[in-house]
Amino acid sequence: MLDMLAVIGPMFLVIGVGFAAGFIPRFRSGQDHLNGFLFYFALPTFIYTAMITAPPTAGFPLLAVVIVAVVTPLVSIALYYGSRLFGVRGHEGAAATSLAGSFGNVGYFGIPVSISVLGPEAGLAAGIVHMMHNLIYLNGYPLVRTVVASRAAQTGDAQTGDAQAGHAERAGGIGHLLRTQIGPILKRALLLNPVFIAMALALLVVFSPLSLPAPINESASLLGQTAVPLALFCVGLALHPAIEGIRSGGVPKRLIGLGTVGKILVLPVLTWLAVLPFYDQLGPIWAGTLIIIAAMPSSTTVYVFAQQYEGDGRLAASILVTSTLACLITLPLLAELLL
User: Fold this and answer.
1) Distance separating alpha carbons of residues 251 and 242, to the nearest angstrom
2) Are 71 and 269 in contact (CB under 8 A)?
3) Burial label, 256 (beta-carbon count in 10 A; 0-12, 13-18, 19+)
4) What distance in Å separates the CA atoms of residue 29 and residue 22, rounded to the nearest whole number?
5) pTM of the predicted model as reported, rounded to 2 decimal places
6) Is pLDDT of 112 > 90?
7) Which domains does the chain have, with CATH numbers?
8) How many CB atoms lie within 10 A of CB 213?
9) Binning pLDDT at 50, 70 and 90, where does residue 165 land?
10) What are phi and psi of 102, to 5 degrees?
């Protein structure tokens, strides 16, 4: 436990520095620019470098991908329907609770922690697990919410008697939805996503004879060295709008508790249970990486998505804050008990 505290303690200090800097207007006004540099340059090069320089492990177990693809969505679904048991407020906050309670800070926090705890061997495993989480949430959540909103709009047309508008919308069919909404989402999340491009390039370099010139790799390494401290600093900055959302009131505490428990306890424990029977096939690096990344607090993206698709990011922001603070205790405990 003390070893894990020694690893994540300095990271939380950097988050604290970012939070303190958030009280200064010049830093808060520059948050979008810092996030832009991090997303387009620092994080992609960090992930690329970590993946191509990772010492070889015992192959690439597809089972690890299956565990992420099965366990993580199941937790999301369970949180969604569990939230709906809490009446009208639960129905309204079900999507945000489901997202914040299962989508972790896998890039900014999960990859550095995995490498720090398990060694550089975890670089490739952490990058691939990170890619899976991004595919599930950066693509899956917007797609699901877009389809749900479209169907709700059609139902609303029918219920208000606007049969002509409803018929016109249905006439466009799935093709119209793909062209106007789903297509742009996939384009942004895959073709224009620098993190996804960097991971795809790293996989190509690792699993094929292809290699980039040394000056390019060295430049990528230099840029990537800024990713971890900058990412943690940005997490600290992001806590300010999250806390402001909590202070505004109107956030159901039961949903905050449900989402927080789901993220920092249910998801990592279920991942551990899924890993146990296949530990020999996975090996310690892949098994440990799966558990550590599952135990990460909520991603800062959950606030943005909840604000965009649900119209209110306060609940997601609350779960982001509580899970980030709670994992200072739960991460060392999980490392002691599970790893």
Assistant:
1) 12
2) no
3) buried
4) 9
5) 0.81
6) no
7) 2-143+195-338 (1.20.1530)
8) 8
9) very low
10) -140, -20
